Amino acid sequence: MYSSFQLAKKYIHYYVNAENGKGHGIHSPFVFDFVKNVLNDKKKYDCYKTIELLRKKLLNDNTIIAVEDFGAGSAVIPHTNRKVSAIAASSLKKKKFAQLLFRIVKYYRPGTVVELGTSFGITTSYLACANMESKVFTLEGSRAIGEIAEANFKKSDLKNICFIQGNFEISFRELLDKIKSVDFLFVDGNHRREPTLNYFNDSLKKSGPSSIFIFDDIHWSSDMEDAWKQIKAHSSVTLTIDLFFIGLVFFNPDFKVKQDFIIRY
After folding, report:
1. Are 163 and 146 a contacting pair, CB within 8 Å?
2. 54 Cβ partners below 8 Å, 6+ apart?
3. pLDDT tens for residues 123-170?
4. Pairing state of beta strands 64-66 and 81-83?
């Protein structure tokens, strides 16, 4: 993992060199539409307030739980016994990006949504609320964290979520064997190069021209940056958008020339 200083330097470089977030100068009609109607959609949707209240409760919950970590580990809280509030502060996707994921699902209407890394279910709730006709499959390694997420889903009465607990190396492949397609994939767990590339390659088998894959923390470490470079270079990928904290991948064959965009957000 990069140090805070290294990440700050990388972010400054990204911010200075990225396309402005207004869409000016972007020559791809698809990307211009994305920037205008998704990235810059400022509407306050009804579910925002409800889900953010749930986040606030988690950030103030001092209950201590025992956590198993199957991924690259927590650089912030390395202990097995952790406070819910501390886990929430370090692992929940920030409101800005969780709500962006909501808008992406709402705009493009994927039928089958897969999330690797449930945490306490904040991002999952956004994904589920964005399209109630979709089926959201969310996977979490830690049993204790998963139990809290499931309780949150019940409180929110979200019935289009299928929660799966267990090691991703097993549970993800089992899920892929059962579902027909991966229309939307959000990878937010096990921040290492090899597992990330495995998730990408395994999901490709169930992807289609309208599928959208999103990878979290693509600049978190040199390992993740290498994984992101390999994903961008894959022959099936026709368009990528780098928002620094997340990377978006598209497969639409109508994009005749492979394009990689870095956009300020």
Report:
1. yes
2. 122, 125, 152, 155, 156
3. 999 999 999 999 999 999 999 999 999 999 998 899 999 999 998 889
4. antiparallel
Quote the CA–CA distance of 222 and 225 in Å, as a whole number.
5
Q: One-letter amino acid identity for 220?
A: W
- Centre a 10 Å sphere on the Cβ of residue 9 and count the other Cβ atoms it contains: 12
User: Helices (DSSP H) in the chain: which residue ranges?
Assistant: 4-17, 29-34, 46-59, 84-91, 95-108, 122-130, 143-155, 168-178, 193-204, 222-233
Q: Which of 212, 163, 160, 161 is nearest to 186 (CA)?
A: 212
In what helix (H) or strand (E) does residue 236 lie, and over which residues does it extend? Answer: none
d(CA 54, CA 63): 15
The per-residue pLDDT for 187 is 97
Residues 86, 92, 94, 95, Cα dihedral to 10°:
-110
Distance CA 215, CA 53 (A): 26
